[in-house]
Specification:
Two copies of one chain form a homodimer. By secondary structure, chain A is of the alpha+beta class. Chain A is built from six helices and three strands; from the N terminus they run ααβααββαα. Helix content of chain A is 55%, strand content 14%.
Chain lengths: 110, 110
């Protein structure tokens, strides 16, 4: 993404990557700290290798933190950082557009 | 995307597909009606087959209209519909997050 890499929109979409990332952020925003299995069961059937990849990218981007909740076997839970929670208005604007223009959809709350 | 297909966020991301779609919407939002070549030259180096695919999907979703501006050869220009212009707050929220959290980015204006 060379030419307009200083565009805040392009740079943000670059970080978020694709719709799966925003759906993961949505689940953590509305439901708080979640374990890997919760996210796998929730996000519209996200393929498990895609989930692992997006979680790593979102962690690298400082949007979520992971913490081990058990040592053996080692298992993690995921929480939005402040930077991640600041995506609230983005999700809100998307939900507003969706309920207005896509019949049969509704705003899922926290 | 079966389980939560009534979620307005999931449904919207389903329509928008990926970041390229939102970058096309951005260009049309800020710069008005554009020809295929303008979009190809602009959107962060979008591959031309991806551009053609996303334009068709955005047209199918009622987000943009295309109109022929010359007959021979047949060439089209693209304009946001009302439904497409209503994505303004989504782009705005993304830009606000980007300029706040990604150093070196700026808000590109209309």
């Amino acid at each position: 993404m060379a030419p307009r890499s200083d565009c805040a929109i392009a740079a943000t979409l670059n970080v978020l990557g694709d719709r799966w990332s925003l759906l993961i952020v949505r689940d953590l925003m509305f439901r708080g700290t979640l374990r890997y299995g919760d996210l796998a069961a929730s996000a519209e059937g996200i393929p498990t290798n895609t989930l692992a990849d997006r979680l790593r990218k979102l962690e690298d981007a400082g949007i979520l933190d992971k913490q081990a909740y058990t040592d053996r076997p080692l298992r993690y839970e995921y929480t939005l950082t402040d930077r991640g929670r600041a995506l609230g208005p983005v999700l809100d604007a998307i939900a507003t557009w969706g309920v207005t223009y896509i019949p049969g959809t509704r705003r899922l709350g926290p």
